[in-house]
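Suppose you are handed only these lines of text.
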Amino acid sequence: MLQNKRLVSLFCLVMIIALALSACGGGNNAANNEKNKNDNGAAENTPAPAPPAEGPKYNFRLAETHPADYPTTKGDMKFAELVKEKSDGRITIDVFPSAQLGEEKSAIEQVQLGAIEFTRVSSSPLGEFNKEFGVFSLPYIFDNDEHVWKFLLGDAGMKLLDSLESSRLKGLGYYTSGSRNFYSEKPLKSLEDLKGLKIRVQENQLNIAMIDALGANATPMPYGEVYSALQTGVIDGAENNYPSYFSSKHYEVAKNYILDGHQRVPEVLMMSKTAWDKLSPEDQAIIKEAALESITFQREEWAKYEKLSEEQVRAAGATITEVTDVTPWQEAVKPVIDANRQQYKTILDAIDAAR
Ligand code: GTR
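From them, the structure of the protein bound to beta-D-galactopyranuronic acid can be written out as follows.
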């Protein structure tokens, strides 16, 4: 009797250990859990569906500030579509537009921690996490869009993207964002008109220096708060490209737009380094390829939406002022460039060489 009891206990112990071991083996990441679910599902429901493509399955999230019809969001969606296609449906990415997962600074932090796998953000707030990216907040360093892209797609631009690894981020590709211009409800016809105005800027120290040099006062704040800050008079103005000026409806509460083109701040598509490191080299290649391929599409969408935005804000009664001579603006901010030239020497030289 005693002997039998011992045998039963021993059997139970062996079963418990076997169960514990199998749970450990299958449960060490979300992708495996997902795979087990499917394996079990397939065993329960006959007939089995078509066999899944080889390799683990993933469902990732991508944080985006802009609404669904904005060109960066369309770029994100194209990227997700290409990843799905190239992985035969194994890797899916859900795009969360309109800052649903948080404003840009918070999205970057969450991606660093691996809480969100992907985000698309502007280089300007990114510059607070990786100093090198601050270079894009320096005013008037690019001549035009062609100049920007010659730099971004060249060796130096790609090296810069790789430098994000030291900030626990994996840079995948750049998207375009045109050029940024000032706007206010107060008349803006010249540099003089900017003097003393309270201007909202993206959250980056260099923007504060730039606004000071232009004789205005900088107020850094998240993008999503700008409309009501303009409306209530907390700020007198802000600055952005045509598409953002239009899609955010800032033109409704700041109808004077002056085309000084002070910055061309590329958008960056990136992944959490933690999530990236868990992928196989094959899956990493799929993600990288898809990101680079989505750039052309994003730039085409941008060109269309930029045109539409200009037409729409003009039709809504915005007063647009061209700047025929940008020299006084450039001279005003020269101290900012001089103070930062040493720190950004290598990148600034590469930007000059791409001219
Ligand atoms: C836009 C950019 C956004 C955000 C915004 C801002 O041009 O696409 O990601 O950075 O500017 O001014 O905060």
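What can we learn from it? DSSP finds 15 helices and eleven strands in the chain. Residues 58-177+265-301 form a domain with the D-Maltodextrin-Binding Protein; domain 2 fold (CATH 3.40.190.170).
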